[in-house]
Prior knowledge:
There is one protein chain. By secondary structure, the protein is an alpha+beta fold. It has four domains: 1-47 and 296-422, no CATH class; 54-273, no CATH class; 426-460 and 663-803, no CATH class; 474-655, no CATH class. It is 50% helix and 17% strand. It is built from 24 helices and 23 strands. A six-stranded mixed barrel has the order 4-5-10-7-9-8.
Amino acid sequence: MLKNWINIFIYHIKTNRLFTALNVLGLSIGIAGLIFATLYWNEEHSYDQWNPEKDKIYTVLNDIGGGNIWAVNSAVPAPILKSTTSDLQDYCYFTSNYNKETIQYNGKIELVNKIFSAQSSFFSFFPFEFILGSAKSALHDRNSIAISEELASRLFKNENPMGKQVKYAGNFFVVRGVYSLSQKSSVMPAAITTIIEEELEKKKDSWGLNFGLMLKLKKQSDTTAILKSLNHIYIENNFKKQAKEEGITYEAFLKLYGEQVKPKLLPFSSSRLNQGNCPFPEGTANLQFLKILMGLSILILLLSIVNYINLATANAIKRAKEVGVRKIVGATKLQIIIQFVFETTLITLFSFLLALVMVELSLPFYNSLLEKNLVLEGAQFYLQLILIFIIVILVAGVLPAIYVSNFEPLKVLKGNFSRSKSGIWLRNSMLVLQFAIATFFIIGSLIVYQQVNYMANKDLGFKGAQVMDISFKPKKGRNQFERYKTIKQELLKIKGVQAVSAGVFSIGSNVNSWSGMHYKDNKEVITQQMAIDFGMMDVLGVRIIKGRDLTNKIASDSISNVLLNEAAAKTLQEKDPINKEIIWENRKLKVVGIVKDFNYFGLQNKIAPMVFMHITAFDWVQKDLLNISVKIAPQDMPKTIDAIDKFWKSKVDAEYPFEFNFVDRSFARTYKDYQNQSQLFSFLNVIVILIAVFGLFALASFSMERRLREIAIRKTLGAETNVLLKELSKQYVIFCVIGFIIGIIPAYFLLQQWLDYFAFRINIQIFPFVVAFMSLLFLTLTIVLAKAYQVTKIDILRYLKYE
């Protein structure tokens, strides 16, 4: 029997090559889309799952009020917590960002992007596999460094790195261990040191938020007790202490400063998928994009299956007599269902193989778009493939098989089957669904494109096209600001350099610092610190809209005078904020100018209150001067950049490569992910339209082939071609309108939610909906009229000779 089914299947493939090709191609495209999304989903959900103690580890976050959650901590809470509670097994402070620096060995210099610093307990939280050395001894003193297997290969080639001395950040370290990074992790460093211990020692009594903090509990249990202990430490050791220093009661302190910092615990196992601040340098997944991509991929697979069912039922009319004869000779309904499901299984198998080929060929493009390194392997992935395979067979195979098995033998063999209306409602409903899905994708791709285009062209409040942001690494034992002043003088001598300034920030990056600003009895305002050198506003093209800029002609401008942006000025609730005194970092500062708001982090974020002071106003700021801004003339820019490069390598830093970014390009990276989303949405839109064309062609072919005898009679009675075309296409226009109306509802509400993610966004207008409707209508009429015109040219005698 199986051999007979295979022979029948091969026969129908040969006689229906076009339908078979459309079936396989449509299904393979849908399956390929879901495979891509599944690979991405698996990769994001795989982070830290290998860690055997992941369920006992928590990271400490700080809720500072107003919806602001910070992922950094002071150096004080953990040691006190360890001494006061029995639930805590261990803790580890770490830097929340990687450092990019050179590591030298035996005259060889390697630029390393991911250098990390943590306490010696780090490897008990991240038990990486050690190739050489061990987790216990790798960071046992301040001069130890552990490196990854990949960095060991780069630095030492075939030489054994254990015990070798390397130079990093002006210090010498001894390699105590080499580890492997074979699994995805929230921290994947190329090198690890305990330099952080020096900072922790300096700030052991400070409540300034600087470090990431992990806690490991003795057992996976309720964290209520830990949170209660942390909150008690915050109040007793920080807030009450501050109140006492200011000579006021704790209650008065709360009234003056408002809501205080509260600790929160984030489970380590879910930190990668946390929507908000996370202390780990690998960052968090773009969960919103991940869900969107998964949802769209499932939608496209559904569309492919609907298309398959339409094609299968459209082709079933040609097999009606076969089914009728088989029933007459004794075939049961179940046998016919199994046969057609078997054929669907073969079609699905071919589609899966083609889909895997598509994925393998386009995976480099997909990885480039998502900045990932996805591969087609893994036990979990193979099980998911099998599950998808089974679901596709059940959904795509059972419905057409049941439909075919219900053919009535007598009607079929009498030739009356073509007049039956059985299954028409199902096919028409599926066509409407295809139109609705296509509507959603067309509208979605247009709105996403409009938002990304808006972000690319919006006035950001600064001009960064000619401003180079040069990385300025500190030198051990030398004052960073004094070095900068000397470099500035030399840079201004280079032809093409128009201005030089500096700021302890970098637009478009994650470099930021915040503190509380007070004015009279107003509530404390968390304000972004923007330390600058004179002339920085001119370099960036940021306008002073009230008052004046900071200048070196007024001595107090480098000590106690500041600028505020519009957002910060509004919080003072003063008609004229100029010359008003604010309190910031426990010092009185005078406002001398108001800066026009400009975007710093990205257009998905509101513009935060900012306070601008000179770099020398606070001693601790100067060490954080890590960027120099150089404005260059638009003429002969390559020559100017080359001259700066030569100067930098010869006079500033011969060991570290000359690195710079133009400010506007740095900011453009803040919406690069959304540009990728727009490209992906457009690509998926093309796929959806292609599949919809297949489905429309299938149903139009089926419907018109059922009406061939009717068309022959009409032509005999004198019906003109244009009348026939109108009659044949009318129902499809109706389906198109119904599908469009259904599709615009989820499109509007879901895209409205997506746009609400942005602080600066477009408003949804009627244009995308008009374009979607006109596109669908044009597509429908083109396909249907082409097919209708073809059937109006039939041989009348062929269909009427037995009437």
